[in-house]
């Protein structure tokens, strides 16, 4: 066990020491730390406060927690039925699995390592301290509880996936049993929703709030336990915290016993998932399809081979369009577009039915732009910089940068038109306002794309997508603040007949900032080095 503790401490120490060679990363981590400290100061100086009547219904948060938790559990179960999950990395496999250390100790090492990663990934929850305080009156206790259950659900979800994989691997009957349990659970939730709607004559939203905040839902494995744990902290219910904690501990004990007892050898089963995860990450970094773990045959049409269009730098754009076509026959219209159209459509219909004020239209626009940011920062230019072709093309740096970013600029335009069109039709918003909303969405996408280029110029080769998003988010605040500010001023200056022009200043400023960033960083190819990774 001393060797495993040494390994954990050494890995942590080396990660800290490596920051000396990455000053940009050090600055970024300091920025994240300052943001968290700032969020904590909000509670310290504003106080916990008593619950006021104007606070939002806390059942909304319970519904969000329960819904996200159910999605995570379902994802882990599906993973367990196919490839399983893993608590280890490939270096762990090469170093620990061949060492003369007890399999139980190695498993506990994986649990501690995964818990640490989950807690690190849950840091984003502390950024919501201000929102939780303003909307629900929550303090540090509730935020800490939310942070803990996020880490627990990720950890136990992975344990569940490993256990399901070992239990069902190569046995079709057992897979059917697990699928039946999942479908029965989902059917039970749907029946409960239908029962509440019919008996109490309420809408589907109110029914969902009642079901997900009920005592019965709290006993659903992992998802329900997490909501019970959180609400126990909120209402100072020691019994609820004790019960949910006990259920988590019991599941953990059962899974550890199953993995380490008898003839069950989790090494081989976990190794398959670890290799698959590693190959998937490598494929994502290199911009290619991940290896198909299930061994399913994928039919590739011969006519989709080769680019066939473009000359010089423009070949990069056609190459990206071909890659997008292989994922979606409609090229620029993918699952993200469909989901966003469905989301804004439901919101628009709900706003119209309840006759909400038109100011919520701007909140909707801000929400879809915020979601767009997390998709746009995964641009294709970075993938091209890992390959030698873009450096060898006999064209100027700016033309190659624009060509490699073209699809990232076009997609927000098409998405904006379709998403806002659906919202206009279902919400009854002024079509002229919708035109300028779509322009604002597209201009935001241009800024996000330009930020990824600036990111590459400043930090260089850095495959960590989370770091990229956080770095760009800090720069985004500097850019968006004046853009949003001019539109806010326009609200007071423009007469009501020209209210549809409110977002125009924001759009203009975003386009100007995007052009500026492209001009300043157009020589990226001349300054960057090919590293192959």
Spell out the key features of this protein.
533 residues, mainly alpha, 2 domains, 22 helices, globular
Structure description:
By secondary structure, this protein is mostly helical. It has two domains: 58-274, no CATH class; 314-527, no CATH class. 73% of the residues lie in helices and 0% in strands. The chain has 22 helices and no strands. The chain has helices at 2-17, 23-46, 58-82, 90-96, 103-121, 129-136, 140-168, 172-200, 204-212, 223-234, 238-260, 266-286, 314-327, 335-353, 360-376, 381-385, 389-392, 397-427, 431-459, 465-493, 504-520, 524-527. Helix 2 (23-46) crosses helix 20 (465-493) and helix 3 (58-82) packs parallel to helix 7. The longest helix is centred in the last third of the chain and has 31 residues, at 397-427. The chain is globular and about 65 Å long. The two termini are 35 Å apart. 32% of the residues are buried.
């Amino acid at each position: 066990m001393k060797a495993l503790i040494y390994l954990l401490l050494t890995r942590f120490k080396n990660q800290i020491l490596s920051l000396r060679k990455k000053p940009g990363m050090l600055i970024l981590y300091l920025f994240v730390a300052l943001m968290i400290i700032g969020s904590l100061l909000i509670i310290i100086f504003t106080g916990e406060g008593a619950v006021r009547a104007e606070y939002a219904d806390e059942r909304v948060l319970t519904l969000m927690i329960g819904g996200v938790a159910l999605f995570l559990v379902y994802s882990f179960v599906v993973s367990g039925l196919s490839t399983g999950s893993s608590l280890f990395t490939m270096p762990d496999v090469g170093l620990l699995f061949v060492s003369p250390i007890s399999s139980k100790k190695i498993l506990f090492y994986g649990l501690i390592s995964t818990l640490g990663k989950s807690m690190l990934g849950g840091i984003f929850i502390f950024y919501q301290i201000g929102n939780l305080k303003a909307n629900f009156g929550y303090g540090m206790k509730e935020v800490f509880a939310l942070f803990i259950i996020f880490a627990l659900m990720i950890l136990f979800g992975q344990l569940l996936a490993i256990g399901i994989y070992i239990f069902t691997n190569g046995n079709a009957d057992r897979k059917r049993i697990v699928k039946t349990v999942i479908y029965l659970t989902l059917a039970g939730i749907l029946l409960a929703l239908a029962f509440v709607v019919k008996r109490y004559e309420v809408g589907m939203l109110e029914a969902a709030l009642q079901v997900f905040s009920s005592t019965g839902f709290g006993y659903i494995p992992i998802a329900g336990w997490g909501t019970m744990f959180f609400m126990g902290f909120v209402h100072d219910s020691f019994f609820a915290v004790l019960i949910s904690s006990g259920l988590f501990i019991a599941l953990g004990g059962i899974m550890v016993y199953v993995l380490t007892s008898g003839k069950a050898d989790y090494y081989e089963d976990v190794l398959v998932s670890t290799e698959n995860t590693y190959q998937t990450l490598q494929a994502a970094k290199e911009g290619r399809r991940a290896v198909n773990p299930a061994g399913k045959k994928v039919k590739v049409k011969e006519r989709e081979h080769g680019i066939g269009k473009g000359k010089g730098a423009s070949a990069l754009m056609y190459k990206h369009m071909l890659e997008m076509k292989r994922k979606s026959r409609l090229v620029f219209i993918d699952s993200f577009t469909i989901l966003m159209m469905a989301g804004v459509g439901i919101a628009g219909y709900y706003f119209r039915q309840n006759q909400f004020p038109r100011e919520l239209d701007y909140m909707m626009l801000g929400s879809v732009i915020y979601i767009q940011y997390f998709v746009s920062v995964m641009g294709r230019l970075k993938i091209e910089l890992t390959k030698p072709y873009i450096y060898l093309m006999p064209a100027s740096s700016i033309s190659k940068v624009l060509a490699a970013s073209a699809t990232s600029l076009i997609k927000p335009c098409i998405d904006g038109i379709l998403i806002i069109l659906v919202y206009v039709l279902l919400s009854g918003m002024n079509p002229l306002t919708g035109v300028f909303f779509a322009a604002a969405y597209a201009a935001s996408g241009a800024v996000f794309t330009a930020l990824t280029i600036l990111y590459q110029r400043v930090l260089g080769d850095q495959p960590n997508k989370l770091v990229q998003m956080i770095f760009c988010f800090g720069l985004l605040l500097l850019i968006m603040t004046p853009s949003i500010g001019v539109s806010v001023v326009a609200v007071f200056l423009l007469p009501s007949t020209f209210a549809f022009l409110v977002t125009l200043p924001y759009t203009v400023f975003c386009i100007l900032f995007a052009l500026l960033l492209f001009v300043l960083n157009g020589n990226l190819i001349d300054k960057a080095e090919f590293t192959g990774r």
